[in-house]
Amino acid sequence: MSNCNCSSVHIHQPAQTRVPVEEVEALFDKPFSDLLYEAQTVHRKHFDPNAVQLSTLLSVKTGGCPEDCGYCPQSKRHPDAVPDEPMLDVEAVLTAARAAKDAGATRFCMGAAWRGPKQRDLDPVLTMVREVKALGLETCCTLGMLREGQAEQLKEAGLDYYNHNLDTAPEFYGEIISTRDFEDRLETLNKVRGAGINVCAGGIVGMGESRTQRAGLLAQLASLDPPPESVPINLLVQVEGTPLFGTDALDPIEFVRTIAVARILMPASYVRLSAGRQQMSDAVQALCFLAGANSIFYGDKLLTTGNPEWEKDQALFSKLGLKAA
Question: Which helix (H) or strand (E) holds 262?
Fold first, then answer.
């Protein structure tokens, strides 16, 4: 997808979402077959139903994050946090990007465990973006909250997408994170959109939220103006030592419902199966694709958690008759 010049468009979030939560809940409440039929019908109007976009995610700076996100093993506030590691050098990132491209990925995402980058942090990332872009890949970064002018620097370097998830509904946000506010997320998304970078924003489900709160997350995403170009839907990966370890697992059918509702609400967005795919059966993933998911993270690792291996994904695509977009 090519970049649009959206410098005159601003994401705004009124107190009352543009898409009422009650309408989103009504979609969740539909009989499963009716919901999937509606989602697949919407999907076919906007996308090739048998094509899936492939992205690969690399952690370029792992561990040592000062935030206290309850789901994340990179927070230094958690007793069993992953070690604080130095930033990868540019050549290591390019080696990973070349391997991702050779395996069929079209977008390369670079993530860093920061609350937000200082300028000395951002400078090497700008080089990474330029060099990965020169390989012919779409570029994406997730670096935390951005300061004034940083989105413009990323845009100038050639960044195609910036990922900044809303995580969960506003009313549940404080149960998961205390070191930042929901409004902080929206402020960074405004900066990204204002710089003309495509927005990648989604959330995590299975963190103990209610269905109403899942509906609230999707209502917030669909109310962004315009909606995100990419919407990653993550299923909580429970990591021992994090506060959310031991949370009751989300029912797989409820996860499929979440994908279907996201597709109906954001018909022109790429809906990505993100974290948690490793713990899903082939049958559940097939239902997700039927429900309108048309993007995945591709490769054997996300930032710090596992992901299905390339060969396993290729075998699944073969069984389902899917192709890389």
Answer: helix 252-265
Calculate the alpha carbon distances from 114 to 27, 76, 88, 122, 293 in Å.
36, 11, 14, 11, 29
Beta strands in 127-226 (DSSP E): 138-142, 161-163, 198-200, 203-205
Cα dihedral value 270, 276, 278, 281, nearest 10: -80
237-264 burial by CB neighbour count: b if 16+ within 10 A, else e?
bbbeebbbeebeebebeebbbbbbbbbb
Active-site hit among 6, 107, 140, 263 = 140
* 65 carries an active-site annotation: yes
pLDDT in tens, 52-81: 999 999 999 887 777 877 787 777 667 766
Q: For this structure, is 140 an active site residue? A: yes
272 classed as catalytic: yes
Catalytic site residue 72?
Answer: yes
Terminal-to-terminal C-alpha distance of the chain:
11
Active site residue 6: no
48 pLDDT tier (thresholds 50, 70, 90): very high
Set 6, 72, 141, 288: catalytic member: 72
